[in-house]
Amino acid sequence: MATTFQTRNRAAPRIVVIGAGVGGLTTAAMLARAGYNVTVLEAHVYPGGCAGTFFHQGYRFDAGATLAGGFYPGGPMDIVAAQAGIAQWPAHAADTAMDVFLPGGVHVTRYGDERRFAEHVRAFGPAADPFFAWQERTADALWDLALRLPPWPPQRAQEIARVGGIGLQWLTQNLRHLDPRLAADALRPVAAHLYAAPAALRHFVDGQLLIAAQATSSSANALYGASALDLPRRGIVHLDGGMGAIAQTLAAAVRANGGEVCYRHEVARICFENGRPAGIETRRGESIPADIVIANLPPWSIKPLLSDTAPAALSHLPAAPRDGWGAFMLYAGVDGAIVPADAPLHHQVIVREPLGEGNSVFVSISPAWDSTRAPASKRAITISTHTDPRAWYRLRAEDESMYNKRKQLYADRLLAAAELALPGLRAAADILLPGTPLAFQRFARRVGGWVGGFPQTSLVRGWPPHLAPSLWMVGDSIFPGQSTAAVALGGLRVARAVVEAHPHH
Ligand SMILES: Cc1cc2nc3c(=O)[nH]c(=O)nc-3n(C[C@H](O)[C@H](O)[C@H](O)COP(=O)(O)OP(=O)(O)OC[C@H]3O[C@@H](n4cnc5c(N)ncnc54)[C@H](O)[C@@H]3O)c2cc1C
User: Is 250 in the pocket of ligand 1 (CB under 6 A)?
Assistant: First the structure.
């Protein structure tokens, strides 16, 4: 079938980005602005993938991600806006990030401002001070480094030299107040800083790390963990229309910069000539030529698109990820009267250990002021828990009635946990829509329901983005992993690497 896709600048390489997740769209917006011919192909009917927002019976539910960070001045989303030509994000700063409910009735409010000091002492006692002092000091040093966008892990000699240069400059500037334990932290878990910690603090850190690093304190890398725990201090925002507004704003920026974003275009094959991508074929049979392909997909989704031309990095890929998570979701449309006017819009409830599987849940409520999210006087609520996706697939294949029973059991567990934060939730709900990891395969094409990228157990856990000549990867499988801000940061790095590797004049 003949292609109808535009070539804006005949002298510039043609780039196809597969997937309109936040990582793919960030990369696309930057490259379109840099003058490349960019086409984004998205299988679904709207952008955002795991950070999309969908319509259902008058409500707009956030499908996966609900907590938006990185919008502070100089933060990742601020840099993306400046470099992609986005005048303003449709974002409103939140006064308080979230409430965390711990086993035994302890309740902690996560403030970004100085109220956090008194709150930590109230919840955990003064014994927690050294932990938070370490965490904030470490995060300050590392965010500064991360925002200089060193390519990580470096792949080419040029990148190794650049990492060395940025590292040296950073060391020279920070040497005077550098904590020597920083080097040790590169190789140990967060738990190294929690030896004498009260149980409540460990529960709190484990719960927060599970959502931010996909691993608890016993295995989450200390440097990564310290930065991830900093999210509330850096500030969070609520977006007009829900999380999907990030991807929609980025898609508009791709177009404003001369690129294209095409929905209902599922890529079936990346075609190779002489060891490089020459184009792609869609499931509908269209062929689109490309000089460079950027896949906004996990490696497990890229490999089937390559038939027998898989680059070395993908040829020994195990059939499924060895670790990582799926998500069980419950979308609830409720009467807004159950939401206290002064309550934060995010709540983490930790019922008991082990975390996940309904024992810990994250609850996010649409803002009262956002009339686009729910019918009058109602609110759209997204509730989620980490779950092993393999169990759901097994059960679905072997015994559908047990699969449905388990779905109901998990929905009940999520409701019971969420009721601790929002009493009366069940009775106030007019819609309760559960979703298993299979829904993430169906709606975000996440093979095996695997979401959230790799658990951040080491600083080199994520994949480097360069897979083969002219073939790149972006999204939550590459460093720095999951979250909208992290995949945007990864997208900035990949766009910069593509410009360096494929310059045009
Ligand atoms: C339940 C849950 C809760 C989360 N909570 C938060 C949170 O509160 N805050 C936060 O910041 N992050 C959160 N995250 C993580 C965040 O959503 C993800 O890390 C991030 O959105 C992933 O972006 P990505 O760029 O990797 O792309 P993805 O979101 O994976 O999007 C990839 C896109 O590619 C498309 N696609 C796939 N295959 C093809 C193909 N063959 N052809 C064309 N298109 C294709 C898909 O349809 C999809 O739109 C959460 C994730 C989940 C699942």
Answer: no
> Ligand 1: distance of its center to the CA of 133 in Å?
33
Q: Which helix (H) or strand (E) is 171 found in, with range?
A: helix 157-174
Give me the CATH code for the 14-61+76-90+241-320+454-501 domain, please.
3.50.50.60
Cα(455) to ligand 1 centroid in Å equals: 15
3-state secondary structure 3-34: CCCCCCCCCCCEEEEECCCHHHHHHHHHHHHC
Whether 385 lines ligand 1, by a CB cut-off of 6 Å, is no
Q: Among the atoms of ligand 1, which is closest to the Cα of residue 26?
A: 25
Task: Record the tokens describing residue 373, joined without a space.
Answer: 């999210």
Distances from the Cα of 79 to the Cαs of 200, 291, 389, in angstroms? 36, 27, 35
**Both ends of the chain: CA-CA distance in Å?**
31
C-beta of 286 in contact with ligand 1 (< 6 A): no
Each residue's pLDDT tens digit, 109-130: 999 999 999 999 999 999 899 9
Contacts with 181 (C-beta within 8 Å, 6 or more apart), sequence order: 134
Distance CA 347, CA 418 (A): 8
Could you state, in order of their start, the residue ranges of all structural domains in the chain? Answer: 14-61+76-90+241-320+454-501, 95-234, 325-449
* Residue 2 pLDDT level (bands cut at 50, 70, 90): very low
Maximum distance among all Cα pairs of the chain, rounded to whole angstroms: 69
**Is-contact 278 292, C-beta < 8 A?**
no
- Which DSSP category does 387 fall into? E
Ramachandran category for residue 466: left, alpha or beta (phi over 0 → left; psi -120 to 50 → alpha):
beta
Say yes or no: CB of residue 288 within 6 Å of ligand 1.
no
Please write the tens of the pLDDT for every residue from 486-503: 999 999 999 999 999 999
